[in-house]
Write the structure tokens for this entry.
Amino acid sequence: MKVFQHTASAILVSSLIAGAAQAQISDDEIRIGYLADMSGTYRDLSGPGGLEALNMAIEDFGGQVNGKKIVVFSADDLNKPDVGANTVRQWVDERNVDMVTGMVASSVVLAASKVVEQSGKLALISGAAASSLTNEYCSPNHIHWTYDSYALANGTAKSVLAEGGKKWFILTADYAFGHAMEADITKVVEADGGQVVGKVRHPFPSSDFSSYILQAQGSGADVIAFANAGSDTVNSLMTASQFGVAQSGQKLAGMVVFLNDIHAMGLDVTKGLMLTTGWYWDMNDDSRAWAQRYHKRFGKMPGMVPAGIYSATTNYLNAIKATGSDEAQAVRKQMMATPVNDMFAKNGKVRADGRMVHDMYLAQVKTPAESKGEWDLYKIVRTIPGDEAYRPESESKCKLLSKG
Amino acid sequence: MTLIFGIPLSVMSGQLLLGLINGAFYALLSLGLAIIFGLLRIINFAHGAQYMLGAFAAVMGLNYLGVNYWMALVLAPLLVGVVGVLIERFLLRRIAGEDHLYGLLLTFGLALILEGSFVKLFGVSGSSYPMPEQLKGGYNLGFMFLPTYRAWVIVAALAVCLVTWFMIERTRLGSYLRAGTENPKLMQAFGINVPLLITLTYGYGAALAAFAGVLAAPIYSVTPTMGANLLIVVFAVVVIGGMGSIMGAIVTGLAMGLIEGLTKVFYPEAANTVVFLVMVLVLLVRPAGLFGKEA
Amino acid sequence: MTSLQIKTGAARLQPQVVLERQQAATRRKRWFYLALFAVALVAPMAIYPVFLMKLLCFALFACAFNLLLGYAGLLSFGHAAFLATGGYVTGFLLSHYSGLGTELGILAGTLTSAVLGLLFGLLAIRRQGIYFAMITLALAQLVFFIYVQAPFTGGENGLHGVPRGQLFGLFDLNNNLTLYYFVLAVFVFGYAVIQRTIHSPYGQVLKAIRENEPRAISLGYNVDAHKLLAFVISAALTGLAGSTKTVVFQLASLTDAHWHMSGEVILMTLLGGVGTVLGPLVGATVVVTLQSYLSNGPLGEWVHVILGLIFVICVLLFRVGIVGWVLKLSRRNF
């Protein structure tokens, strides 16, 4: 029927024209989704605090870019991959969200990032640790911003090895992330002439670590490494303290430890612990200033994850301002071309595989005597240059990196 | 060096001792559940939350009221016991005659409310509770370093278990309780206030859970979800022991601690799951549990 | 006309009236189902289809669970094992055999769950009450452990990127709308199976067993076999729900195997009304909707507390469930 054909061609033509006008903001709004665990194990890592950081970034930008309003949606992923992936899918289908951030539990992020990729949007991953996100699971639709497990393992393990810890015992949480950490640590230790004299994998999660600490003590190792996170690390460290591990001369190396964990455990239990972090509130004037503002709003000092969210979002909004578009690939390209220089990182850059490479910091937990305030918890021992900390492109399995 | 299954004896002894300590802890936790189910026929899914409440009561008591550990060992169970009494009197009593299913669901709902609220109020990272001065340090036993506190745990847990067992099985009050739950009408006719007895018993079960919570506070981080993971393991212990049997719960708790300890040496990944394997095997052979009587 | 009928003048009409009332009830039921089906057909125009599909899968899960609890009187605390098995088997097959039709993948998942149900049933059926529930819980925990350890499930990360594939080689299921009608068909099928089971002679025996088991035994019925069959059907349909869910979300994860999932389905059934036919559907709708809207809003942190409150209020006040309550009010028989 003629009418139908006319209408169809009209629609076709207008959509072609619309498609050609790429340099514009979709729906005249910039829509950002915040996905994190708001009520479960990882709540204090990002959770409501991360949302606060996101809102700060938007407010500091004036709430709009080039006159287009910025809108935020937030959701609790309940630490479940299906809930997370589903939420992102709904955000994209129903609200045409442009960017997703937060993104904490690695299992959730792996599932959600697939949805983001399928729908051609952009994800700025701040909370998750899995280095596979820029390795075998790399994608042109996400950037891994704040830290990753490779950098943490690398930083801490290398430094402890340098101090003379040659024989290692690794306590691993029995799930994919723990196994990956264990592999990363083993590689670093063996490459540096060290030896893994024992390891044990504990169920994830566990509450009683006495048996495993006993095994570590009996192994003859100089260093006990904890390839676990969250409450497992907290419980392991507390048990190690009770069983007098430090007194017997064994060093403790925490792989994935955050400021809120140290704060919760207290300095008595954690003093002397070596760890690597992507950012610390007390490292320079810029970080201190921002952290004080955050503390006023939220009541707690920020760890590296909220700081990373603030930084990633600010850089994202800057990229939109520069290109005039919120289309994922255009923005990503701009972010890759712009160095990161803010309170979070100096001389940071986004690599082709999506990894934001920036300096990491080797820190040691202060003793109660050294600490002058509730949040005065770390002393920064060494700055690890970004290129040294993160997985080099030559070792990467990422399909986005051109080989040869 | 003598080897058992390839593990040196000294290492094995250490692991078995730790297993025994954990077992005493399980026994204490299952005791409360066993009493509440065995005598009151209530499946108390709020037991884990009551354990958590005890630990938090100790933490808050210390931080806000200066209540020290030893006082907390008495006061926290009392406080949670009162909470338990209120739960029984105002909530559980309404569904007293109904199917067990409803008791299970009601207490499950209560657990969700308690744990969810605490997560909202305190976050998930948990609080630390300092080790009491008198129990710091430990003994070098040769084959291992045993923290004093862990030795205390086994003593305290077993003492409370035995006292409770004695009260229920050997005293007159205990006999009233046992008779009152078997035949309430007859006992009421004799002038015994059976509903009050039931309410107090539920409170006592909750208090036992809280006592375990205070014991746990210095060695495990105090988080709102600390009870949730333990709960189904404790249920499994009670079922294996036989749901009506107090002694069954105690003995099974100790035994499971040992079995779990051995698992942690030989196949640690299965440490959380071995109790269920044991439950299936036991129930196949002895349908009412090891010491239970067929209902 | 016998003398009896002449004497009971008014009573002569009774059988006729009863029959008419029954026929009227059946007609009402048919119209109700037709209306419900019509709503289901147009719903995706107004509501996000993926959400509706999630609802349908969980409704099927709850209906299957209700068959066991409401009609056979058996409380299983391990149904999550069947949901996960259906999901993982289907997810694995569809991911690794790219030519495999989606319907075959789902069928495989359902059958595997049925077999697992048979296994669980053989071990658990002879126990009663709380012991039955605990055995199913223990078995489900063992299954959970296996899924944590098995490499093919992806452990904590889950099985991602399951292709939706094509139905019968004809319909592309990547289109949300097409997929929706397929899921609707699956649900209707499962529901019909349950209906047929309940209203058959076998269903009547099952009810008798639930009401008074010793009497059923004394009447010569093989009670264990009847219970076992109910268990297997329930497990199979739960597996079907899990398989379909995996195709919709393209993901199978440990959440489906965790004992909390077993608890959730109990909540849905209780909330809707145990032993009623529509109850699980209503219950699933309420719980899934609540979870979705709660986690997306400012109340996100309170989601567990609110669910707990619902549990408590339900048990104290709404023991018969929403549908049971509605039935009591309207005094009709569905």
Notes: Chain B has eleven helices and four strands. The mean pLDDT of chain B is 87. Chain B has one domain: 15-285. Strands of chain B lie at 3-4, 7-8, 138-140, 145-147.
